[in-house]
């Protein structure tokens, strides 16, 4: 980051960066603005990126072995959710997404197409955004 930009950020904000990182998204707009700070990437592009990095290894491991790694990563995410380490938590989310994309690659599933086909028109049951289905906690 350019030093001037960093200084502006410091003076405009009355909360420290750590507090900022822990603040939940207030609105969909906040979420979208935060996302714009990063390189834009579609789900399919991320899946292609994982293909480029890991496909030759993952295809040797097979669907079963790769699924086991995804399950392990979900366990690690569960542990990170109990802690206070935001960076570790962020990394675990990234790992779960990476292993999910890898598994989709070797199972020959287009994640972006699958996600949009199922959720592109809102909730798959009631077709509303936000979902209007009766709430079930279990
Ligand atoms: Zn619904």
Written overview of the protein:
- This protein is globular.
- With 138 residues, the protein is mostly helical.
- α4 packs across α5 (86-106).
- It has six helices and no strands.
- The protein has helices at 3-12, 17-22, 28-36, 43-82, 86-106, 111-119.
- Residues 1-19 have low confidence and may be disordered.
- The protein starts with a helix and ends in a 19-residue tail after the last helix.
- The chain folds into two domains: 1-40, no CATH class; 42-138, Helix Hairpins.
- Bound molecules: zinc ion.
- Zinc ion binds at residues 123, 125-126, 128, 131-133.
Give the CA-based shape: globular
Task: Tell me the name of the CATH homologous superfamily of the largest domain.
Answer: MazG-like
CATH architecture of the largest domain: Orthogonal Bundle
Which percent range fits the helix content? 55-70%
Which structural traits does this protein have?
138 residues; mainly alpha; 0% strand; disordered N terminus; binds zinc ion
List the helices and strands and how they pair.
Elements: H1 3-12, H2 17-22, H3 28-36, H4 43-82, H5 86-106, H6 111-119
Helix pairs in contact: 4-5
The structure holds zinc ion.
The site of zinc ion has 7 residues, from loops.
């Amino acid at each position: 980051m350019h030093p001037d930009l960093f200084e502006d950020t410091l003076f405009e904000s009355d909360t420290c960066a750590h507090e900022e990182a822990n603040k939940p998204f207030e609105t969909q707009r906040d979420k979208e603005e935060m996302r714009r700070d990063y390189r834009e990437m579609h789900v399919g592009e991320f899946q292609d990126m994982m293909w480029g990095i890991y496909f030759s290894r993952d295809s040797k491991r097979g669907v079963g072995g790769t699924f086991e790694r995804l399950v392990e990563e979900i366990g690690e995410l569960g542990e990170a959710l109990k802690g206070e380490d935001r960076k570790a938590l962020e990394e675990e989310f990234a790992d779960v997404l990476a292993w999910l994309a890898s598994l989709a690659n070797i199972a020959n599933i287009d994640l972006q197409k699958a996600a949009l086909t199922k959720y592109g028109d809102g909730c798959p049951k009631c077709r509303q955004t936000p979902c209007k289905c009766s709430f079930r906690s279990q």
